[in-house]
Amino acid sequence: MKLIIKLLLTAVAVVVLAKILPGVAVEGYGSAIIVAIVIALLRLLVKPILVLLTLPITIVTFGLFLLIINAIIILMADYFVDSFEVVSIWWALLFSLLLSLFQSILFSLLKEDQ
After folding, report:
1. Distance in angstroms (rounded) separating the CA atoms of residues 31 and 38
2. Of 75, 79, 84, 72, which Cα lies nearest the Cα of 30?
């Protein structure tokens, strides 16, 4: 149940960010739910592999390269979901930063309710 609520909150954040950022577009709420699921799966399956492969550059940049990895995950979600569009890696970077911020705020509100 908690996973479903987190996915729905992420979908709401995706819709809000798509309305705010001109370089990001999502067609509707159903598409936003699919985007949230795809991003969660990519973060679960692909991100650890990318982190491991880019460990030397991540160490050299003091972890800032992880921001680029998050942007790559967003661009991969753009590739897999037709109704989700991100114009460039810079919009993906901004989207991933704001999505992480929104998720931390929304998930902290979820923890306070329990």
Report:
1. 10
2. 84
In this prediction, residue 113 has a pLDDT band, given cuts at 50, 70 and 90, of low
The tokens for 8 are 């729905």
Nearest to 65 by CA among 46, 78, 39, 47: 47
- Strand, coil or helix: what is 24? strand
Contacts 24+ apart (CB under 8 A), 81-84: 81/31, 81/34, 81/35, 81/38, 83/26, 83/27, 83/28, 83/31, 83/34, 84/14, 84/25, 84/26, 84/27, 84/31, 84/34, 84/35
Write down the mean pLDDT value for the chain.
94
d(CA 112, CA 44): 25
This prediction has a pTM of 0.91
Question: Alpha-carbon distance 73 to 71, whole Å?
Answer: 5
Distance between CA atoms of residues 85 and 101, nearest Å: 20
